[in-house]
Amino acid sequence: MKGFLKFSPTILFAVSALILSWQTQAKSSDAIKYNEEDFNKLFFSQIQTLKDRGCPEDVLVILQNQHDEVVSNAQKMSFFEDNVPFIPVISKSAIDLKKLMNMVQVGDKKGKVFIVVSALTDNIKVSARPYYIYNVANGKSLRGKSPREAERIVTWDGVRRCLTVEETIALCVHTKTLSDFNLWAIGSCYSAGFIPCLWYMHSDGPMLSWDSKDSYDDFWATPSCLK
Questions:
Q1: pTM for this one?
Q2: Nearest by Cα to 139 from 48, 51, 45, 218
């Protein structure tokens, strides 16, 4: 058609991803301001949450020893609305995945595992020791996007990445996200071509299960963090 401009799918995707990023940040005209005291309170409240939910002492010690580094890193960052400055992550090599899911609580219900743990693998290399992730977004701005589409949007500029299973569990332990919507853990994969996910059913409570990368629903989202 005369006068009709054609753009490649790559350009159109980059533009849509950029627009989504602007929309996400537009919820707050400026980055949320935190001071050192705020970071200290967040750090030790997270440690206390883990302690209250039965985290072994040796794991707590490893996390507590990272305090100075974590606070120092966070002070160099800017945070927009709904992003958590940092969250402690415990790998399934440090604590059994069923015990990790048991730390996820919605009301009086505790998380359960409904997958074969040995069929889980990570798409990215992460520490086997307890560690921290930064500038964590719960994925609210990506609700309604399929995991495949959300992954492209999150990673298009090389700054952020999607969360693994253990990181998504950590997000659910330290926030109330799972009370609002379900989560895909695209940083991990399950069996042949599937992805693990965390979701909440009022009758059964929080569950770790699996889904297709091409699924989409307004009640599902894809969380992310800085690389």
A1: 0.87
A2: 218
